[in-house]
Amino acid sequence: MKIFNSAETISGLPYKELIEAIKQMFIEEYTIPLRHIHTLDSRDSDASLLIMPAWQTDYLGIKHVLIYPNNAQRHQKQGLYSTYNLYDNDSGEPLAIMDGNVITCRRTAAASALAADYLARPDATKLLIVGAGNVASELAYAYAAIRNIQEIQVWNPTLERAEALAQRLVSDGFEASAVTDLEQAVKNNHIISCATLSTEPLILHSWIQPGTHIDLIGSFRPNMRESDSELFADSSVFIDTSEALIKSGDLLEAIKDGKLNENDILADLSDLCNQRHPGRKNQKEITVFKAVGSAGEDLAAAILVYEKGIK
Are the CB atoms for 196 and 224 separated by under 8 Å? Predict the structure, then answer.
């Protein structure tokens, strides 16, 4: 069994290849059972275990996510650890274990970029990143794989973190800057990508300009929101999988407020990848993509790391 550390896992996931691997996973047949969530008996009373399996003809994978929310105060450690185990689905032989945090961050950014390849304007060059955490820090690199991104702005509730991410992007060759006026930034950019843990709307419908693509990555629980309900009233709405309809506060609140009906959702990522829906139809259309993540994306990433690692 091969072991891929963080650096080796990153090396195995270049964005152009990862985006294509996730696309092929949505085109091919695979199985994703509902994820398992368990409350743990631990000194950290809020600790939990998340288990996400997925399999296809050749491979089976399981991501284990351990969440200890009080680690920062109790141990001065991060609150989430994740590993990914990959198996041969013909024999059950364990093939590899790799950094699950890297896989989660990179596949999340790659899935957003994959959706944007169908939904963002072909001439989109300006990207606003809302958030400055682990996933947010990957977005510029993922989007640059599918669009000619020429200018990036970063907004975060803590300005120092936005400035740190912008500086990192500048050092990697992007034209990037931190901003404090979120409304103006939303109005000035072609693609808005949000990766936050917000429980209150950050992006308001009244700020959105014609032709904008909005990518909502946070809000993977019913109490989390990154947008107001009005955003969904007159935009073209897409989701990654049907799980988004039972997990995302953005969607659940919009439905509750009468601004969105389940039948209004035009397509999921599988529909887009299999060309059952054409994606963006014109330059002025406002598109919204709401994702909560999929174990199939994890599996695609793990297979890519493994197959590149054994060549």
Answer: no
Distance, in Å, from the CA atom of 256 to the CA atom of 259, rounded to the nearest integer, reads 8
pLDDT (tens digit per residue) in 187-215: 999 999 999 989 999 999 999 999 999 99
- Which of helix, strand or coil describes residue 148? coil
Nearest to 122 by CA among 151, 98, 147, 143: 147
pLDDT digits (tens, 9 = 90+) for 18-64: 999 999 999 998 999 988 889 999 888 888 999 999 999 999 999 99
Listed residue (17, 238, 271) closest to 146, CA to CA: 17
Task: Map tokens 């977005």 to a residue.
Answer: 139
Distance of CA 34 to the CA centre of its chain: 18
Q: Kindly provide the residue ranges of all beta strands, DSSP E only, lying in 34-186, ordered along the sequence.
A: 36-39, 48-55, 59-67, 80-88, 94-99, 126-130, 151-155, 176-178
Distance of alpha carbon 26 from alpha carbon 238, whole angstroms: 15
Q: Which two tokens stand for residue 7?
A: 């650096």
DSSP letter, residue 43: S
**Is the pLDDT assigned to residue 150 strictly greater than 90?**
yes
Query: Quick one: how far is CA 118 from the chain centroid?
Result: 16
249 in Cβ contact with 219 (< 8 Å): yes
For strands 48-55 and 2-4, give the pairing. Answer: unpaired
Give the rounded distance of the alpha carbon of 70 from its chain centre.
24
Phi, psi for 82 (deg, rounded to 5): -145, 140
pLDDT at 45: 85
pTM (two decimals): 0.94
Q: Residue range 151-166: average pLDDT?
A: 97
The CA distance from 101 to 67, in Å, is 12
Is residue 77 within 8 A of residue 84, CB to CB? The reply is: no
CA-based radius of gyration for the chain:
19
